[in-house]
């Protein structure tokens, strides 16, 4: 039990139990309870560094610079924001709440970006007051909103315009479409032969003295395992940048290519390699700029999952085990062993929301038993409350066993809920043989404290 999809600090001890960064999972469970999100700090830092150094080297080699923003939506706590900063990353936030965490971590405003397709006045004002390095605007309405609020504060707001390139990626496929039927960004494609919404927005920003146009932003999707989509989107953005220069005389300095770098969720999955993808993108954008006759802009990227996803696992305790006879399509019967754990869709909504696949193992002991086809389910009042759709577990899996699900660091805690009034689990960091709580477990009192009776 080493290597992907587990974090680099995960391994079996001689007695068969698993340790994370030198901490036995039985000790983690005894000290912090289950379910718990366990975060391997060294693994997070190594991935953050790997992305930064790979992109700096590749873009440096073609003669430009790059900034790596950690996408806080994947998981943001004060400590996590500090780790990102200490590893030379900036922080991308998607709401006033995420911005508040980054600021609490003393990330300088200039190193923070603010996203969102419907930012409130309060969120924008908070960003302006914090002196954020960039506000990524997402609509014509919002351009006016940011300009009005910047004027109110007597500041000039640094903005990027989020565009949709028609390149939609995720998994191994990308499909170029003229218009994307989704809420984000402004299309680079003209509505009916006229000017594209993206061009309209860029020109609109340039008209405002309260706004400083930093550049163009594109995010094409998530869990992308084929770098072609990034290159295709970059081509479209760089062409738009050249067109804008032709129209307005302004060649913007920056281009952001968003996040979406894919990771391994199951044994055998191959994650996107940051060195390879950085080189591919850098060489491709250099060629495109040469063809367009423009200088290279400074680039930025916003990986979230690729930094924190593999660094996290969720530790559960098994409560019940139930063999269920299932009729297969061909009419034969087989047994699926339902293993219920003490969490579920409230701590990881991704299987229910996206059909996401995960891997699990019994981690409190080793077992010489044969394996059985199991489904790990939660404790919620819902049959779709599935944690792992399909996994081979030892046939002797039983009540009290500790079970870990791999690669839950991204979008687990950050999308957690209190469904069925379940308090959300803690986030526990492990490093060098010691654990510490980054976010404590919620209590029923926390939840009842919100209820005004
Ligand atoms: N930048 C922007 C503008 C984004 O919208 C996102 C993700 C990212 C960066 C980070 O993407 P990443 O590198 O983490 O893939 N909740 C979903 C994913 C939705 C992500 C939305 N935006 C999930 O659980 O897979």
TrEMBL record:
Residue numbers carrying N6-(pyridoxal phosphate)lysine: 73
Positions that bind substrate: 305, 350, 354, 382, 411
Residue ranges of every copy of the Orn/DAP/Arg decarboxylase 2 N-terminal domain listed in the record: 48-308
EC primary class: lyase
SUPFAM superfamilies: Alanine racemase C-terminal domain-like, PLP-binding barrel
Active site, renumbered: 381 (proton donor)
Metabolic or biological pathway: Amino-acid biosynthesis; L-lysine biosynthesis via DAP pathway; L-lysine from DL-2,6-diaminopimelate: step 1/1
InterPro entries assigned: Ala_racemase/Decarboxylase_C, DAP_deCOOHase_LysA, De-COase2_CS, De-COase2_N, De-COase2_pyr-phos_BS, Orn/DAP/Arg_de-COase, PLP-binding_barrel
Alphabetized UniProt keyword annotations: Amino-acid biosynthesis, Decarboxylase, Lyase, Lysine biosynthesis, Pyridoxal phosphate
EC number of this enzyme: 4.1.1.20
A GO term for molecular function: pyridoxal phosphate binding
Catalytic activity: meso-2,6-diaminopimelate + H(+) = L-lysine + CO2
Lyase keyword on record: yes
Cofactor section: pyridoxal 5'-phosphate
The UniProt record lists the keyword Amino-acid biosynthesis: yes
Chain sites annotated for binding pyridoxal 5'-phosphate: 260, 302-305, 411
Main function: Specifically catalyzes the decarboxylation of meso-diaminopimelate (meso-DAP) to L-lysine.
NCBIfam families: lysA (TIGR01048)
Subunit field text: Homodimer.
Family: Belongs to the Orn/Lys/Arg decarboxylase class-II family. LysA subfamily.
Protein name: Diaminopimelate decarboxylase
Protein's organism: Promicromonospora thailandica
Gene: lysA
């Amino acid at each position: 039990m080493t290597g992907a999809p587990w974090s680099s600090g995960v391994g079996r001890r001689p007695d068969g139990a698993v340790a994370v960064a030198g901490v036995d999972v039985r000790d983690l469970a005894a000290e912090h309870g289950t379910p718990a999100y366990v975060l391997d700090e060294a693994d997070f830092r190594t991935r953050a560094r790997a992305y930064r150094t790979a992109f700096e080297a590749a873009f440096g080699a073609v003669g430009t610079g790059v900034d790596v923003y950690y996408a806080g939506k994947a998981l943001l706590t004060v400590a996590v924001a500090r780790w990102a900063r200490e590893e030379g990353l900036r922080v991308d936030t998607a709401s006033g709440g995420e911005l508040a965490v980054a600021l609490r971590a003393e990330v300088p405003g200039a190193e923070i970006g603010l996203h969102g397709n419907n930012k409130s006045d309060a969120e924008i004002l908070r960003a302006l007051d914090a002196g954020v390095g960039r506000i990524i605007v997402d609509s014509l309405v919002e351009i006016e909103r940011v300009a009005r609020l910047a004027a109110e504060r007597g500041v000039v707001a640094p903005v990027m315009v989020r565009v949709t390139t028609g390149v939609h990626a995720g998994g191994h496929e990308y499909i170029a479409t003229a218009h994307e039927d989704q809420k984000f960004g402004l299309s680079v494609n003209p509505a009916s032969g006229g000017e594209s919404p993206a061009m309209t927005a860029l020109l609109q920003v340039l008209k405002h003295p309260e706004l400083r146009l930093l550049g163009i932003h594109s995010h094409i999707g998530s869990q992308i395992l084929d770098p072609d989509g990034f290159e295709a989107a970059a081509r479209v953005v760089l062409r738009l940048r050249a067109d804008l220069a032709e129209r307005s005389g302004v060649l913007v300095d920056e281009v952001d290519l968003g996040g979406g770098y894919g990771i391994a969720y199951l044994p055998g999955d191959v994650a996107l390699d940051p060195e390879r993808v950085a080189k591919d993108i850098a060489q491709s954008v250099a060629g495109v700029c040469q063809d367009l006759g423009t200088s290279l802009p400074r680039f930025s990227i916003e990986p979230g999952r690729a930094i924190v996803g593999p660094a996290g696992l969720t530790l559960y305790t098994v409560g019940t085990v139930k063999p269920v006879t299932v009729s297969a399509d061909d009419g034969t019967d087989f047994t699926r062993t339902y293993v219920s754990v003490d969490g579920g869709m409230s701590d990881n909504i991704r299987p229910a929301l996206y059909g996401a696949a995960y891997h699990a193992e019994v981690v409190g002991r080793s077992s010489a038993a044969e394996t059985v086809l199991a489904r790990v389910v939660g404790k919620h009042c819902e049959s779709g409350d599935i944690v792992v759709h399909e996994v081979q577990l030892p046939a002797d899996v039983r009540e009290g066993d500790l079970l870990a699900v791999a690669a839950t660091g991204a979008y687990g805690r950050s999308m957690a809920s209190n469904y069925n009034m379940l308090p959300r689990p803690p986030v526990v960091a492990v490093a060098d043989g010691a654990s510490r709580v980054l976010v404590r477990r919620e209590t029923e009192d926390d939840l009842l404290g919100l209820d005004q009776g």
